[in-house]
Design a protein that fits this description.
Blueprint: E1 6-9, H1 14-26, E2 29-33, E3 42-48, E4 51-65, H2 72-76, E5 77-92, E6 96-100, E7 104-107, E8 113-129, H3 130-135, H4 153-166, H5 174-186, H6 189-192, H7 198-201, H8 204-218, H9 226-233, H10 237-246, H11 251-269, H12 276-283, H13 289-300
Antiparallel strand pairs: 1-3, 2-4, 3-4, 4-8, 5-6, 5-7, 5-8
Organism: Paraburkholderia rhizosphaerae
Protein name: AraC family transcriptional regulator
GO molecular function: DNA-binding transcription factor activity; sequence-specific DNA binding
């Protein structure tokens, strides 16, 4: 299945030139196009989870972002512009930057700039919701154009991943698109933050969110410990435990809750067979089938063996049994 893409191009016909300018404004940009040099310019736009991609071949144009009052794109999104061919000049109040093939740049449309393409530039724009960055404790306002350090292997990997995802032609499943979108956003501290500043800038909510994402990906690991989770978040186990307690829960009760929810989905979707309960118990990170069965019945009020085919499942956990303490 192909990705659902909107396409627009700059052609000789007046109607298509008008549509180009109107569509550019729809995406939060004013386009100053040279009618002779801009012919052949094209854009493709699509959404991947919470992230928006634009693939462009721009010729003889100057693009200026609309004000935050005039466009939600400027108000609600931060952009990465990645060049795969040709060159572009980014002009801001205090400096002008040449962005050539292989380079990429972070841009905040709330800070005025011009993207000037005297001849031709190809590449991608990835637009990230400010809210999604805030949820992760990352900065959402840039005081100037930011050029990530391409000598860093970490930055090179992020750039390569953006280019790889931007080059997709077939649409993955909705679940995979959302997961890839989340992973791209999770990596943005590598290019948004100074290495020594990232940990200090994160909010408690952002660190808990990061921990929960890690737990969701590794809940099936029986060796998932507070120390392992805390190491991923780059804080101490005690501090992470306090963060969960401050939200009215506990870290390992949350891990248990995630494992039981994963197990419930598997039990509901898998036809019954011998050793199914034991198989799912181990698959979801439980040390034994008996421990799993006891915890599952306490949570859902039914035994794991009674789940498949039950019209009354899933059910809400018993009111007297908290899922997160």
């Amino acid at each position: 299945m192909t990705i659902e893409v909107r396409r627009f191009a700059y052609r000789r016909e007046f109607a298509q030139q008008t549509q180009w300018h109107e569509t550019a404004r729809e995406f939060g940009m004013y386009s100053d196009a040279d009618p002779g040099c801009s012919l052949g310019s094209e854009f493709r736009a699509w959404q991947l989870g919470r992230v928006f991609f634009l693939a462009g071949d721009v010729r003889g144009q100057t693009l200026t972002p609309m004000s935050a009052d005039a466009s939600q794109w400027s108000a609600d999104y931060v952009s990465i512009k990645l060049i795969t061919g040709g060159e572009m000049w980014i002009e801001e109040t205090s400096a002008t930057h040449r962005i050539g093939s292989g380079d990429f740049v972070l841009l905040d449309a709330q800070r005025p700039y011009k993207a000037i393409t005297p001849e031709r530039a190809t590449g991608f724009v990835m637009r990230m919701p400010r809210q999604a960055l805030m949820e992760r404790g990352f900065r959402t306002a840039l005081d100037h154009v930011r050029l990530p350090d391409l000598s860093s292997p970490d930055v090179q990997l992020v750039r390569a991943l953006i280019e790889c995802v931007g080059g997709l032609s077939r649409r993955p499943s909705a679940d995979v698109m959302q997961r890839v979108s989340d992973q791209l956003l999770d990596l943005m501290d590598i290019v948004l933050e100074r290495p020594t500043a990232s940990g200090r800038r994160r909010t408690a909510a952002a660190m808990v969110r990061q921990a929960k994402q890690f737990i969701a990906r590794h809940a099936g690991d029986p060796d998932l410990t507070p120390a392992l989770i805390a190491a991923h978040v780059c804080i101490s186990s005690k501090h992470l435990g306090r963060l969960f307690s401050a939200q009215g829960g506990s870290l390992m009760r949350y891990v248990l809750s995630v494992r039981l929810e994963q197990a419930a989905r598997l039990l509901k979707a898998t036809p019954w067979h011998r050793n199914l309960v034991q198989q799912i118990a181990y698959q979801c990170g439980f040390s034994s089938a008996s421990h799993f069965s006891h915890a599952f019945k306490r949570r859902y009020g039914v035994a794991p063996a009674d789940v498949f085919g039950s019209p009354h499942f899933p059910v809400e956990p018993r009111a007297s049994v908290p899922t997160e303490i």
